[in-house]
Structures are given as structure tokens and as C-alpha cells.
Design a protein that fits this description.
By secondary structure, this protein is α/β, with parallel strands linked by helices. The chain has 17 helices and ten strands. Helix 2 (16-47) crosses helix 14 (384-395), helix 13 (365-380) crosses helix 17 and helix 15 packs across helix 16.
Length: 537
């Protein structure tokens, strides 16, 4: 049954003024925090010491402390996530799905699966892979499909659809015959769809494309595999996504061992490492930061949200009318559609296996910088979900859990405000206190306090960098290259990380929030062009 009330167009039409007012608030809060931060310093220079300025200093220090606490959380949860990955890598899930075990740990995993399988068996599960593509090269798509072929899961239970765009028809005609020739017989089901261009109510490209492909083919899949929707897991893969060979086994286990499985999304751990060593330094740094964020949220209870590559059961997708084709950031938005569509009976579950995607790399450094900035701007468009969530809370007042929904809205709001303001606040006070320090409480100074905070934060940054670098694909480098790259990171990262975060994280987030304030949201999905090193020359 379709639930029209979860669509963002329904909510915008139902509460147009409220939606617009709330959309204004994150940008206003971010600008206010940055302005007060800078203004407090110049007020001090003009009037020196008074109670108002002291209050501003104390608020800034509290803001820093909140950030330090968040970094402590980051490190502890990242370490836990890495521990879980290593633990799962040692387990043979192919045997576990056949009820076979060799030690006590594997026996416990089988017991958990038996308790929650709900009359489903591993051999019945079909994996549906949707791969949207727009102007990607044949080599990138071949790489993605080749990794699916290498999977340890039964390929007779994998269905693959390449989701093309009519707007990219010329590129499509050059590629499709080679892909079909090479991969059609590798999977039990392999086909392609062509998404028509410029359907009036859609925001073009990725999610409109995937929704079109899913609706066009899901009946064929059920008939082809002689199965039912609850036995089909749908994974959306970006065109550059390389899954681990154990991805489908671990996803199948996670699905079968999770209670209330229909009302869950399943999120693997994403690392932007495909072309990591070829990307410019700023692109590497942003990619690492994005990987930290995913690792952190994976192990933080109730914090995990859909991001890029993720899976959801077909029966849930049918009930939700698949994905929205009316919003820019549908992966995150899909979590909220599911949350409100199932009346807060929905969570995102971690899948402790790795999938790899590309770091931003284009034909030259300027195009790469532009692509990186635009990608972060697109992700920051997620701020629109604050208005969506508040209006949904009002519309479904009786059906939703008040405390849980309030927590969801507040955490979402805090995240976007800190994203847009944090790097500016830290930078402004650090550099201004270097020019002229501020004395307070006799011998103390704001510069000394902030220097301590920044020193601690740099230690955290260096530690998390080393942890994430250790997960990188070192096997692609020679011994000499490994040493050079490692030294480059531990020397350049502490120096350049702050301007990189300001330009490629804080600024695009603030830019997006200001445009939303002005009533000028993004009108289409800005596709990140994917280039590998041998294609960029």
C-alpha cells in the first residue's frame, strides 16, 4: 500500500509556511554562531572586558569542549568498529549460513540467526543489485561488476540491473554490448533499464533512476526466481562501488539474525579507497573524514543512517513505493521516509563488511576541487530533512513516539549546525588570538585555553588518520611508495587539515544552508564524475 504522506511534496503542500520557516533556522543559527564568534573578539578590542564578552568567551569554550568530547567519542567508536570488522573477517560466514561452525563464537552467531530467522533460510535469499550510471566509463562499470562476480555468494541468487539514463544514451550504446557479453552469463539475472529524461515531477538522475528501474523490474525478479518480496534484499550500488567478496554472505547473515527485519535498513562500512593514492591530498583528507564519520555512526546506537551503498528488503520498499524521486539526498532521506512511513518502527543496522568507492578525482586538480565542493554541497542538502521531520511529527502526532522523534530532530539539527559552523569557529578564534590574545581571570588567556584544545584535537586527528591509513589498500604500492605516502600524511595532514575542512566541509554546508534560507534549493542531483588515473591523462 502506497503511503503518499511520506513524500516530501505532500509535506511541503500540507505545511508550506512552517516548512519554509524551519528551513530558514539552521542557516540562521550557523551564521549567528560564526558572527558572534568573530564579533565577540572585536567587541573585546573595542570595550575590553565586560559581562557580555565574558559570556561569549565561556560559550566559545563550551563549544570547544563539546567538540573535544565528540572527538573522544569518535576515537573510541572507530576503534570498536575496526575491531568488529577484523573479528568478522576471521569468520567463515559461508559455512555459518549452512549451519556449520568450528568454534564457540561461530556457534553463538548461528544461535542468534536461528532465533531471528522468521521462517527464512539463507539459500532462499536473493540479492538484488541496482547500479545507477551516468557518463561513467566502461572500465569503472567493469570493475564494479567484476567485484560482484568475485563474491563468495551463489551467483545464481544475485540479480543485477544497470540503470542507465536516456540523457546518456550515446555513452550507453557504446558500452552495453560489451558488458552484456562479459557479464550476462555470470549472474542468474542480468539486465538494464533506461530512465526517461525530464519527467516533470522528478529531481533528475540517481534516485529517480533507481526508483524507475526497481519498479520496472521487481515483478520480473519475483517471477524469475520464483520467490516472494521478503526473501529479496535490494542493494543500491554507486557505479564505482567495489564490494568485498564476503559482502553478500555477511549481509545475508545480518538480515537473518536481525529481529523485525522488514523494518530495518542495512548499512555496510564504506571506504573511499578505490583510487585513494591517485587523488590529490585534499581529496584524500576529505575521504578519510567521510570514512571516520561512517565508522563512528556504525557503532553508535541509533545514530546510523542510510548512506550511499545500503540494502533494504523488497517487501518494505514496495510498501514505501521504493525511494523518493523528489529530493536530492535520497539515501539519508530514505531513512526518514522509512521511519515515518512505518510510524517510527524503523532502524538502520550496521553490516560489518567493507565496500570501496572512489575518492574525488577528475581530469585536473581544479575540476577535482570543484567536484569535491559540489559533492559536499549536495550532501549538506540533507538539512531539508529538518523541516520534513518536524512537519511529519505534527502530521503524525498520534502515531509517533514523541521522545524518539524529538531526539531525531534535535540530533539532526545539531549535526547540521555544527557541520556548517564548527570549522569557522575554531579557525576564527585560533587565528585571532594569535594576533592579539584575550586575558581573563587574572593570568589566564583565551589563546592558551584554545591552544590546549587545538593541541588535543590535532592528536585526535593524527591518531584517527593513522588508524584509517592502516585500512587503506597498501598492496597497490611498492615499499618506497608506502614510506613516502605515510610520511606525507603524518607531516602534511596536521598542517593543511584545517583549511581543507573549512573549504571542503564547512563552507559548502554553510553555502547550502544559506541557499535554503533564500528559498533556492538545488534543483537537480549534481553527478560526481568518476575518473581513474589512467583515464585522467
Amino acid at each position: 500500500m502506497m503511503k503518499n504522506f511520506i513524500e516530501i511534496s505532500f509535506i511541503k503542500n500540507k505545511y508550506p509556511k512552517l516548512f519554509r520557516i524551519i528551513l530558514f533556522l539552521p542557516g540562521l543559527a550557523s551564521i549567528t554562531i560564526i558572527s558572534v564568534t568573530a564579533g565577540g573578539y572585536f567587541f573585546y578590542l573595542q570595550w575590553y572586558y565586560n559581562d557580555i564578552i565574558l559570556t561569549i568567551w565561556l560559550l566559545i569554550i563550551a563549544y570547544y569542549l563539546r567538540w573535544i568530547i565528540r572527538w573522544l567519542e569518535y576515537i573510541s567508536f572507530i576503534l570498536y568498529a575496526l575491531f568488529k570488522i577484523k573479528k568478522f573477517e576471521k569468520i567463515n560466514f559461508e559455512k555459518i549460513l549452512k549451519w556449520e561452525y568450528t568454534n564457540l563464537e561461530e556457534k553463538k552467531l548461528i544461535k542468534k540467526m536461528k532465533e531471528n530467522q522468521e521462517n527464512l533460510n539463507a539459500y532462499e535469499i536473493v540479492h538484488r543489485c541496482l547500479i545507477p550510471t551516468y557518463k561513467e566509463s566502461e572500465s569503472i562499470l567493469q570493475d564494479t561488476l567484476s567485484n560482484l562476480v568475485k563474491s563468495n555468494f551463489d551467483k545464481n541468487k544475485i540479480a543485477v540491473t544497470i540503470c542507465w539514463e536516456e540523457a546518456d544514451k550515446e555513452n550507453f550504446l557504446k558500452i552495453i554490448q560489451n558488458l552484456e557479453k562479459k557479464f550476462k552469463n555470470k549472474f542468474w539475472f542480468f539486465n538494464y533499464t533506461i530512465h526517461p529524461k525530464w519527467i516533470p515531477w522528478e529531481i533528475p538522475w540517481k534516485w529517480a533512476n533507481i526508483k524507475y528501474a526497481a519498479k520496472q523490474t521487481y515483478q520480473k525478479i519475483l517471477k524469475h526466481f520464483n520467490t516472494t518480496p521478503e526473501k529479496v534484499l535490494v542493494t543500491t550500488l554507486d557505479a564505482d562501488t567495489n564490494v568485498d567478496k564476503e559482502y553478500f554472505n555477511i549481509l545475508t547473515y545480518t538480515y537473518l539474525s536481525t529481529p523485525n527485519k522488514k523494518y530495518k535498513s542495512y548499512q555496510p562500512l564504506i571506504f573511499f579507497f578505490n583510487n585513494f593514492w591517485d587523488a590529490p591530498f585534499f581529496s584524500k583528507a576529505v575521504s578519510l573524514g567521510n570514512s571516520y564519520w561512517i565508522l563512528f555512526n556504525t557503532t553508535k546506537n541509533k545514530w546510523l543512517r542510510n548512506f550511499s551503498t545500503h540494502a533494504q528488503p523488497l517487501d518494505a520498499l514496495i510498501e514505501l513505493d521504493f525511494w523518493s524521486n523528489e529530493t536530492i539526498v535520497e539515501d539519508w532521506h530514505q531513512y526518514r521516509r522509512s521511519y515515518f512511513g512505518f510510524y517510527w518502527n524503523h532502524e538502520c543496522v550496521p553490516v560489518y563488511t567493507k565496500v570501496y568507492q572512489d575518492a574525488n578525482l577528475n581530469k585536473n586538480i581544479l575540476l577535482t576541487a570543484k567536484a569535491q565542493y559540489n559533492q559536499m554541497r549536495r550532501w549538506a542538502h540533507w538539512a531539508e530533512d529538518i523541516s520534513y521531520s518536524v512537519c511529519q511529527r505534527i502530521y503524525n502526532f498520534k502515531q509517533l513516539n514523541f521522545r524518539r522523534t524529538l531526539y531525531e530532530v534535535l540530533r539532526l539539527t545539531e549535526g547540521h549546525i555544527m557541520w556548517a559552523s564548527l570549522h569557522f569557529v575554531l579557525s576564527i578564534w585560533f587565528w585571532l588570538t594569535l594576533i592579539k590574545d584575550i586575558k581573563f581571570f587574572s593570568q589566564n588567556s583565551l589563546g592558551k585555553v584554545l591552544s590546549i584544545f587545538l593541541g588535543i584535537s590535532l592528536i585526535f586527528l593524527l591518531l584517527t588518520t593513522i588508524l584509517n591509513i592502516l585500512l587503506s589498500p597498501w598492496y597497490k604500492l611498492s615499499k618506497k611508495e608506502k614510506i613516502i605516502e605515510f610520511l606525507k600524511f603524518i607531516t602534511l595532514y596536521p598542517i593543511f587539515i584545517w583549511p581543507i575542512l573549512v573549504i571542503f566541509s564547512g563552507l559548502p554546508a554553510l553555502h547550502t544552508q544559506i541557499m535554503l534560507m533564500l528559498g533556492k534549493p538545488m534543483k537537480k542531483f549534481n553527478v560526481t564524475i568518476k575518473v581513474r588515473k589512467n583515464e585522467s591523462i
